[in-house]
Amino acid sequence: MSLTRRNLMETGGIGAALLAMGASCSKPDQKASNELAALDGVETASRIKSGEISAEEAVEAAIERAERINPEINAIVQKTFRRARNEASAATGPWAGVPTFVKDLDDVTGVGTAFGSRAFPGYRGKEQVPLINKFLGLGVVSLGKSTTPEFGLSATTEPLSTGQTRNPWNTDYSTGGSSGGAAALVASGVVPIAHASDGGGSIRIPASCCGNVGLKVSRGRNPTARPDDVVGPIRLSVHGAQTRTVRDTAAIAAALAVPDNGLEPLPLVTSPTEQRLRIGFTTLGLGGLRPDSEVDAATRNVAAQCEALGHMVEEIELPIAKGLSEDFSLYWAAFANSAVSYWERSTHLPRNGMAFEPFTLGLAEYFETHMGEFEGAIHRLQGVEGDMNRFHENFDVVLSPVVTTPPPEIGYLDGGLDFETTLDRLTKYVQYTALYNITGAPSISLPLSMSKNNLPIGSMFSANLGHEARLLSLAYQLEEAMPWAGRRPPLYG
């Protein structure tokens, strides 16, 4: 999720659209399109730069794949194909011509933003936030907006506004959320990379569900329009991308990083680690829950692989106080209340089920009911960073599950269910990711395992604030030791 009152309704970017050059190219056949689908973003950019393929060809092939695959996965909320064709010939920058999508929580100048909701029909932001400026400034060509749950509030992408986004590994299952559309478009080979954001696990959870690489960078690593979130002092959300390779994730993270932010510099990481890392692994979640047997076994297998690679691995318990999950839920509910309250002030209408989903309304009501506990929750959440800093004096990296189960079936986390059922199911499912939004530390999901039903199971590695490079070099090592490049979902390319 990437949600503040400002970026919900008032943000966007500064520039006008690139000049349309009017270049046209013949549509690729499916075989040619599939061959390009196999390339990651770095390779696509390299071939465009060398002249082996043109930006127009790369974009046209991605459009062909989108038209063919999206009816099965429903991951695109708005197509801007004509605009993309015009922009391809004018694209400049290190990633010039690489096709992508922007998550539908952020404005792109001249393109509508729906926030996964029925509440703001016809809304178009006046300008882009600095992050979107920088992302599109790399030269990538956006083909449109990818689906997201209402205001990015859920861990599945099944909004009432656009319908269920489906997992390309098995369309009966969820893509995760809130960057679920982005994850499905990358996993299915429609595009090599797609913009994503993470306020409670929204990059890492879809990456786990769809078999992608998903990095949540450190707080402060991204360009940002505001120094803090509107609902309180803890800025949860950062931006990044869904990718299929570690090198794409590393390249995007380095390209989007801002200098002079008080963090360790983030260089372009290009090779496996040579360090012997101290890795603590745990399967115990924030609410004291354990994962199901498949996820538990996958995590322990990855821990054993890390030990075989020469790292020091020890099973640990994190220094997490009881009640942290409830405190985070209240902070999360404040975002829902902020969105709903903004709508009420803008429309002069009372909140209602025609505009908002039951889960969103339930979260808003939950916040208002427990508002008296909000200050204490903030205080406790702020204390977690210090506890984890002390923990990291003894451990370089934490290994854990991303979520407690493999991807759930479509409908299990549907926001149209009653609020109590949805909140209970979400809380039990999302037990690990939010910790690193609270502390601001970096965290990455890697597609290292598969379930008995042939669905991806991600493993999450997390480090102390500013140490993305440590995670990325470890990710390269695991990509070599437990390769996933040969795995393809049934709906691919």
Automatic annotation (TrEMBL):
InterPro entries per record: Amidase, Amidase_CS, Amidase_dom, AS_sf, TAT_signal
Cross-referenced Pfam families: Amidase
Keyword annotations: Hydrolase
Residue ranges occupied by any Amidase domain in the UniProt entry: 57-472
EC number: 3.5.1.4
Family of this protein: Belongs to the amidase family.
Protein name according to UniProt: Amidase
